[in-house]
Structures are given as C-alpha cells and as structure tokens.
From TrEMBL:
Keyword ATP-binding: no
Source organism phylogeny: Eukaryota, Viridiplantae, Streptophyta, Embryophyta, Tracheophyta
Main location, first listed in the record: secreted
Catalytic activity: 4 hydroquinone + O2 = 4 benzosemiquinone + 2 H2O
E.C. designation(s): 1.10.3.2
Signal peptide: none
Keyword flag Repeat: yes
Cofactor note: Binds 4 Cu cations per monomer.
Keywords attached to this entry: Apoplast, Copper, Glycoprotein, Lignin degradation, Metal-binding, Oxidoreductase, Repeat, Secreted
Protein name, as recorded: Laccase
Biological processes per GO annotation: lignin catabolic process
Subcellular location: Secreted, Extracellular space, Apoplast
Family stated for the protein in its record: Belongs to the multicopper oxidase family.
Length: 551
C-alpha cells in the first residue's frame, strides 16, 4: 500500500509540511521483474493546507503515474489526472493494476496532478525475468540516483501564484540528489548523499531526472560513465564524461572504481537552453571509495569536483543525445499511415478584457501560455477523457486536433506576433489500431526557443532523427536512422530544432503527449492520442475498474 501523506521535511534550514509517500522523500523504490503483475493500492491521506489565505483548500487530490510503463490495454492505470482517471480524493483510494510487458531497466513513478510530483516521486526498477540476465557483466552494486528540484516554499503555492498572475513561476532554490541538496547549500552538508564504491569493482548508477522544470547535466569527478540503457531500453554502450537528462528521462551507466581511493563529487546543474531566469545552483553527492582515509595528517580530505558544461552548452547536450543507438537492428515502421507535424512551444496571451494588471504580469502585460499546433490543451473538469470515450459521454473532448500546424510559418525564425496567441481546447487526435505513425516534433522560437522533453504515455517510440532549424521533408529525411535508432519514451527536442519519432499504435486507450517541464504542461503544452480498439479482445481496452475515482 502506498499512502499519500503530509510529512515534515527539513531542507535548507527550514521545515516544510511536504506531501510524501509513506512518509519518505523521495518515495520508496519499487523493484519488480519483467513480466510481473503489479497491484498498487494508493490511499490519499493528505490533509494539507496549501495556502493559508485560500478558503476550502486544505486537501490534496492527486493521481499517480508509473512513468514509461506501456500499460498494454490497461490505460485506466496510466495515471494522468483527467486524461485516464479523475484524481483520488482525500480519504479515498485507487488500486492500479497492470503488468510489466517486455521492459527492463530504470523507470520511475510520480504524482501526475498539478505540481505535486515536486516531492511525490520514486524509482521503478525493472529487472530481467527470472533466469535472464543483463546484456553486460553484472555490476557489483546498483544505486538509483534521483535528481530533483526543491523550493523553499510550497511548490503548489508557486504554481498557483503563477496561474493567478500569468507570470513565469518562481524558479527552484536547490537541486537535489536522492532528496538531498548537498554540500554547497546552507544547512545541507551533513546529509549529503554518499554513494559507496570499492576499488576494482563496476557499479551501476540508475540516473533519473525527476526535476520539475529543468534539464540537467550530470558528472562524476575523474570518472567516465558507460551508458548502457535509457528509458528502460538497452542501448549500444558508449562512454562519456557527462550526461544530459531532460525531466522524465532515465539513463543507466556503469562506473568503474579505477581511481585512487578518495572522495569524488557527483555534481548536477542546469542545462538552460531558454532565455530567462533559471536555478543556477549546483547539487552534489559524494562517490566515496570504501578504503578512503578519513584524513591525511589530521586534515580532512575534500572531494574532488568534476568539470561541468556551461549552463547553455547545447553542443554538449546534442553530442550526448545523438549518441544513442539500439543494440541491434530494430523493426522501425517504414510505411507510414499517419504523417504528423506538431509544433511545440510557448506563447503569450493578451490580457483578457476587464482583467486587472495583477493577473497579467507576463511580458508587456500578457499571460504566459504554451501549445502544440497552436492548441493550448485544457484538462476537462468533470470526467477523464478516457472515461468519456469509453462511456460515450459527449461534450468532454473533440477529435479535431490538427495533424499539421493550422498556419505554416518560419517556426524557428522571427515569428509574427499574430501567431503568439494559441486557441484553448480539449482536442485529441484519433488513431486506428495498428496505424504506423510518424510525428515531427518541431520546436518554435515564439517567446524563446527551448529544449522540450516531450513524453508520450502508453508507448515507447523510435527517435529516428533530430536537428536544428525547421524540419525540411525534402532534405532531412536523408538523416533518418531506420536501422538502429534508440527506443525512448521521452524525446529531448533540440532548442529551436526538431525530432522525428515513429511508433505503431497497438495499445488502445487515451494517451497523453506532453512537455515534461511541468510549467509548460501547466500552460497547455500537451495533446492526447485516442487509439481505437482493434478487432480482438487482446487488441481492446479492458473494462474500467470498479474503484475508478469519480471527479
């Protein structure tokens, strides 16, 4: 049983009443095997006064998502609120039932309601089936490394303030590694995360970017990292000195204990591709050799610090993201039934007529927004989209999400201000079961270009190419890797650039595609695919569970 509750958590010298799972921050690690059937009972015990000056807000409604689990035919267990379920009310519960099918590696779970995943998250480790093994030598130790963000205020207050004012939300005050900010922050040194290694052994680090709004660089002083998996899919191993993970992404790396015994910093800081404020602090943990002397001649040995890229080092981020390949040739769809182009980016809404200036504190008296194909996604208030689809409830959503941008423009150039205001709506794109789908994810320069981590629920996909500028179907198809592209569930769309993904729509249900920067999904950078049932029972959505929460 996973119990959602408020727990006192002290960070940066201050105690906060923090929403946690089972009183733990980060939450418990779930360890399963490929093929396991999971039954996770989530009980919402949170009675939490988010904001003292908002009446009737002393409760917390939420849902929980097992990020990256394919949820074959079990979309009811996917988790995003108002997409596949209504959130669990205070005092209520919901049992997520699903089977891990054909997945191994590192995933994670998190709240999928408002900004609650700032503290409600944990690792999900999927081991091979009994009697099967890793495609690399078994490491001596395995350590989940969860990267997070910490606000020295209530993060729900932060997003509510931004929603009221229309301005960008306050950036975080710290990054964390396994819940701890590390030596470089006030009141944090004694609780710094320590990862033990022994000379001559090889360990596996399962690195998860659980940060709410920030892509992150990751490095370990004086140690190379051999990447062996990402998003619970194995890759051709490659060696690097730095990782870049967008929120939602996971990377498994082998690290050899081949340095002189000592203490070495593991360090994390922002990859900030957008113009504007960001948290420019650095979080640290310590890689410590078991036979490290405590001191030399009474002087404590300080850890060695790694070399980290500059905050805006897009070249390093690109070198890393384009290094991934599948271990062998894969079955990429070559005949395409649905050829889609989705723009992804920000926008600015003019101040609504009659609104006060206090509610329009974005640039030049506007309100921030975001969209895909000029549609700013709105969650329905009374039913989940999946429930409305299954029960035939009219008026909850429409199926006219555009396959291409309504207006073609120079996506990464100097965009006319007439294109900065998207249309709000709850629109899905319908796919027939078995459809072979290609999506060009095209970033825009509206307001500012940015690296967008685009996550698709219910599916893994092949990333067959990426590049900068506007995607050109006449020339950029020559860059397509149709032999051994990586399999991911979250694609880092380059700043002012594009990524091309392909998948087969063989999992019925309603599946959210969204930017995993939570500030962007708050502003509407999302859409949903509605995948129809196939012809047989094994190609059809299961019936909704009896305890499905009501809105």
């Amino acid at each position: 049983m996973e119990q959602i509750q408020a727990t006192p958590v002290k960070r940066l010298c201050k105690i906060h009443n923090t929403i946690t799972v089972n009183g733990q921050f980060p939450g418990p690690t779930l360890q399963v095997n490929n093929g396991d059937a999971l039954v996770i009972n989530v009980v919402n015990r949170a009675q939490y006064n988010f904001t003292s000056n908002i009446k009737n807000s002393s409760y917390c409604r939420l849902s929980v998502c097992t990020h990256g689990v394919k949820q074959i035919r079990t979309a009811w267990a996917d988790g995003p609120e108002f997409i596949t379920q209504c959130p669990i009310r205070p005092g209520g519960s919901y049992t997520y039932r699903f089977t891990i099918q054909g997945q191994e590696g590192t995933l994670w779970w998190h709240a999928h309601s408002s900004w609650l995943r700032a503290t409600v998250y944990g690792a999900l480790i999927i081991y091979p089936k009994e009697g099967e093994f890793y495609p690399f030598s078994k490491p001596k130790r395995e350590t989940p490394i969860l990267l997070g963000e910490w606000w020295d205020v209530n993060p729900i207050d932060v997003v509510r303030q931004a929603t009221r004012t229309g301005a960008a939300p306050k950036v975080s005050d710290a990054y964390t590694i396994n819940g701890q900010p590390g030596n470089l922050y006030r009141c944090s040194s004694k609780d710094t995360t320590v990862v033990i290694v022994d000379s001559g052994e090889t360990n596996l680090l399962r690195v998860i970017n659980a940060a709410l709004n920030q892509a992150l660089f990751f490095a370990v002083a004086n140690h190379k990292l051999t990447v062996v998996a990402a998003d619970a899919s194995y890759v051709q191993p490659f060696t690097t000195s730095v990782l870049m993970l967008g929120p939602g992404q996971t990377t498994d790396v082998l690290i050899d204990g081949n340095q002189p015994p000592g203490r070495y910093y593991i360090a994390v800081r922002a990859y900030a591709s957008a113009q504007g404020p960001f948290d420019n602090t650095t979080s640290t943990a310590i890689l410590e050799y078991k036979n490290t002397p405590c001191s030399v001649q009474g002087i404590k040995i300080n850890p060695i610090f790694p070399s980290l890229p500059a905050f805006n080092d897009t070249a390093t981020a690109t070198t890393f993201s384009t290094s991934f390949r599948s271990p062998r040739q894969v079955d990429v769809p070559t005949e395409i039934d649905e050829n889609l182009l989705f723009t992804v980016g920000l926008g600015l809404n003019n101040c609504p007529r009659g609104s006060s200036s206090r509610s329009c504190q974005g640039p030049n008296g506007t309100r921030f927004t975001a969209s895909m194909n000029n549609m700013s996604f709105v969650l329905p208030p009374n039913f989940s989209i999946l429930q409305a689809h299954y029960q035939g409830i009219a008026g909850v959503f429409s199926t006219d999400f555009p396959a291409v941008p309504p207006v073609k423009f120079d996506y990464t150039g100097n965009v006319s201000r007439s294109l900065w205001q998207p249309v709000r709506g709850t629109k899905v794109y319908k796919l027939k079961y078995g459809a072979r789908v290609q999506v060009v994810l095209q970033g825009t320069s509206i307001v500012t270009g940015e690296n967008h981590p685009i996550h698709l629920h219910g599916y893994d996909f092949y990333i067959i190419a990426e590049g900068f500028g506007n995607f050109n179907p006449q020339t950029d198809t020559a860059k397509f890797n149709l032999v051994d592209p990586p399999i991911r569930n979250t694609a880092s769309v380059p700043v002012n650039g594009w990524s091309v993904i392909r998948f087969v729509a063989n999992n019925p249900g309603v599946w959210l595609m969204h930017c995993h920067l939570d500030v962007h999904i708050t502003w509407g950078l999302a859409m949903s695919f509605l995948v129809e049932n196939g012809v047989s029972e094994l190609e059809s959505l299961v019936e909704p569970p009896l305890d499905l929460p009501v809105c």
